[in-house]
């Protein structure tokens, strides 16, 4: 489903070039759960962002179903991200002024308003999969996801009124609102105690089991590595 070919990333800082990724090749199959581990600074987050269409490689290609992600226009790439890819970050990145429900709804609103010409074919496809795309349908789905994650009583809380684990569950619901085929998680349990971390893991692995969502996780958490179908170790911008 996703192929990374000869990817390099070089940051130019001052006089020296910082070579953060040095020739990454990777193939991710549909429905797998892949964990990327490695020491701090190895380039894990950089790789995740490049695979998810958030950051352009200096060299090499990323192919999603044989379409080259960084050859698409910015608008088309944004559309692919919105429609097919979900991101969960270590520090949640929720919008503080919005409620839990509004945070989850945001990608659906962008879907509905941001891509008038691109969405028609996909709309039909997803409608056939049961994704109601009107405002009420999206709201129902957002509420359903939050309830499923145990946040039925927190729909109108702002992020500042939620615990870390609750914020992370909101962030996962937000990543799922548009029914992504691919979910990228960067240290999703990094800031949670072990029981909350366990709960988040159950959500992620159930998602893979029940919906065939492909899940790629960057983590230091040995429990995640143990439960995933494949583990890759990174060091100094390469796989070892
Ligand atoms: N925008 C940037 N400009 C310059 N250097 C950067 C930039 N982003 C990341 N780096 C550098 O690239 C290297 C890899 O960063 P990255 O965030 O990918 O590491 P990581 O493996 O995710 O580490 P951690 O486990 O600490 O999150 C680091 O040395 C970092 O300082
Ligand atoms: Mg990182």
Key attributes of the depicted protein:
globular, 240 residues, Rossmann fold, six-stranded mixed sheet, 8 helices, four-stranded antiparallel sheet, alpha/beta, binds magnesium ion
Task: Characterize the structure shown.
This protein is α/β, with parallel strands linked by helices and 240 residues long. The protein has one domain: P-loop containing nucleotide triphosphate hydrolases (Rossmann fold, 3-Layer(aba) Sandwich). It is 40% helix and 25% strand. The chain has helices at residues 44-51, 74-84, 100-114, 119-128, 135-148, 164-176, 194-211, 222-227; strands at 2-13, 16-28, 33-37, 59-64, 67-68, 85-88, 182-186, 214-218, 230-235, 238-239. The strands form two sheets. The protein has a six-stranded mixed beta sheet, sandwiched between helices. A four-stranded antiparallel beta sheet has the order 2-1-4-5, with helices on one face. Strand 9 (230-235) and strand 10 (238-239) form a beta hairpin. Helix 3 (100-114) runs antiparallel to helix 5 and helix 3 packs parallel to helix 6. The longest helix has 18 residues, at 194-211. The protein is globular. It starts with a strand and ends with a strand. The mean pLDDT is 91. Residues 11, 13, 18, 20, 38, 40-46 line the site of adenosine-5'-triphosphate. Adenosine-5'-triphosphate is lined by residues 11, 13, 18, 20, 38, 40-46.
């Amino acid at each position: 489903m996703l192929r990374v070919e000869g990817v390099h990333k070089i940051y130019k800082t001052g006089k020296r070039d910082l070579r953060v990724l040095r020739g990454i090749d990777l193939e991710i199959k549909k429905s797998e759960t892949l964990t990327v581990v490695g020491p701090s600074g190895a380039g894990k987050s950089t790789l995740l962002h490049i695979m998810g269409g958030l950051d352009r490689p200096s060299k090499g290609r990323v192919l999603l179903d044989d379409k080259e992600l960084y050859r698409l226009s910015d608008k088309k790439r944004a559309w692919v991200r919105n429609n097919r890819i979900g991101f969960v970050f270590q520090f949640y990145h929720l919008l503080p002024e919005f409620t839990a429900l509004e945070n989850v709804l945001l990608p659906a609103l962008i879907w509905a308003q941001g891509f008038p010409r691109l969405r028609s074919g996909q709309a039909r496809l997803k409608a056939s999969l049961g994704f109601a795309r009107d405002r009420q349908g999206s709201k129902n789905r957002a509420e359903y996801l939050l309830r499923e994650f145990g946040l039925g009583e927190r729909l109108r809380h702002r992020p500042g009124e939620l615990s870390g684990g609750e914020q992370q569950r909101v962030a996962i619901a937000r990543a799922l609102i548009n029914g992504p085929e691919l979910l990228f998680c960067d240290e999703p349990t990094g800031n949670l105690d072990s029981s909350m971390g366990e709960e988040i893991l159950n959500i992620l692995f159930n998602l893979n089991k029940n919906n065939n969502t492909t899940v790629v996780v960057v983590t230091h958490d040995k429990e995640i590595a143990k439960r995933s179908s494949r583990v890759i170790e990174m060091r100094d911008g390469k796989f070892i």
